[in-house]
Amino acid sequence: MSKKAVCILSGGMDSTLAAYIAKDEGYDIIAVHFNYGQRTQNKELESFRNICKDLEIEQKYEIDIPFFTQIGASALTDKSIDVPTQGVKPGVPITYVPFRNGIFLSIATAIAEKEEAQALFIGVVEEDSSGYPDCTDSFIKKMTSAINEGTKESTKLEIKTPLVKLMKSDIVKKALELNVPLEHTWSCYKEEEEACGVCDSCRLRLNGFKEANAVDPIPYKAN
Q1: What total of structural domains would you count in the chain?
Q2: Residue 61: which CATH number?
Q3: 82 labelled as ligand-binding?
Q4: How confident is the model at residue 131 (pLDDT cuts 50, 70, 90)?
Q5: Does residue 39 contact residue 189 with C-beta atoms inside 8 Å?
Q6: Mean pLDDT of all residues in 161-180
Q7: Which terminus of the chain has a smaller tally of CB atoms within 10 A, N or C?
Q8: Does any domain span residue 79?
Q9: Is 10 annotated as a binding residue?
Q10: Percent of the chain, pLDDT > 90?
Q11: 188 is in an annotated binding site
Q12: What pTM was estimated for this model as a whole?
């Protein structure tokens, strides 16, 4: 019997690499994408669909979560809050979406239970979390415990975080090694046509490519 994994796939570089690692480990992938009112929602959805084609994923879920825009409190979902472009500062940044990964993992768990999957892949990275509390190894371990406590006895889910301890440059190198179509991935928090190059996410991505001595294939606005 084939083993199945639910992969939370945002369309970004990290989650895409995590899905390629799942494939490399022999899992049949069920892809899950969330439209949650983020500024680059359309671009991320386009990236997700392209990556599903690249990976030849047949089973995919596109889930709408409208309530994040109702609660706001994040520069990603509230357009009245500017996305910071001055570089990473200490503390939890304004781009943190309240308990987003906890909610994503809960929904993905329901799908995994229905699909009788054995694993759930998420591309969280502690270094890149920029102070996001829901991207830590410790949080994922506790979520795994809660998930297995709150599902059927026959559901035994492992949350796999193959990138959690990697630096962004390691992620770029690993992605190139696995022939991940990085031109189909999107990381920018602000723009959908050309990446801004100055938000925290763009800075981390560009720095990762620079340290890996590689060229980022996506378009950036000229600085």
Answers
A1: 1
A2: 3.40.50.620
A3: no
A4: confident
A5: yes
A6: 97
A7: N
A8: yes
A9: yes
A10: 91
A11: yes
A12: 0.96
